[in-house]
Amino acid sequence: MADQVQFRTVEVSRLPSVTDQVFESLYHQVVELELPPGTKLSEVEVAKYMGVSRQPVRDAFYRLSQLGFLLIRPQRATVVTYISVREVMQARFIRTALEMETVRAAAERLTDAQIDRLEALIVEQQKAVDAADKVLFHSLDDDFHKQICDLSEHEFAWALIRDSKAHMDRVRYLSLSFGAQTALDDHKMILEALRARDGDRAAAVMREHLYRIKSIIGRIRDSHGSYFAEDER
Fold first, then answer.
1. Distant-in-sequence, close-in-space partners of 118: CB < 8 Å, separation ≥ 6
2. What is the pLDDT of residue 12?
3. What is the per-residue pLDDT for 10?
4. Which domains are present in the chain?
5. pTM for the predicted model, two decimal places
6. SS in 3 state form for 181-206?
7. Per-residue pLDDT tens digits for 212-223
8. Which of 17, 24, 82, 220 is spaced 20 to 30 A from 10 at the CA atom?
9. 159 vs 156: CA distance, rounded Å
């Protein structure tokens, strides 16, 4: 029985593993289109370039494939996937369902200090928009949504969202060249509703915010058609 066994203690490191570091680097390169759809990747070449062994690269490739970013083909090159409109709409559906509920819950739970933290994020987002820094704004955008999930005491929701939003992320990133201020204005309205403790209003604005991708995806496809799956161009 367990209470009769002497279990050994382990040292748990909080530092990211090599696999985590490779994964995060490739994740951001795909989202930010440094590795555009159709790019062929080799475990050997990526490992050599990053100065790591092949195993963490293999593991990172697998994690990225599970998110929908990579297509791993045995005996052939691994390829960055093309953007799928169908996958974008599925991600939008999942995000809307989860985030309308998390923001509604947040409106009931947030303290003034926590709302001030979200306000500080909004200030940093405005600086990123003013500087036309898409990379920073995209990161702060994610942080805003993640913090709402976390502060609503439904932290698991963001993990589910991140696992489903790969195709959506690339469209969102491309839209920031013309839509960053609109996204930020939505965030400001969400924050206003949270500060007023109006969960229904916060959920309604969140829904409108996440539904915007439906109206902009055509514009993105027109200007970046080669990034999309052939049957959806």
1. 110, 144, 147, 148, 151, 191, 194
2. 46
3. 46
4. 18-80 (1.10.10.10), 85-223 (1.20.120.530)
5. 0.86
6. HHHHHHHHHHHHHHHCCCHHHHHHHH
7. 999 999 999 999
8. 24
9. 5
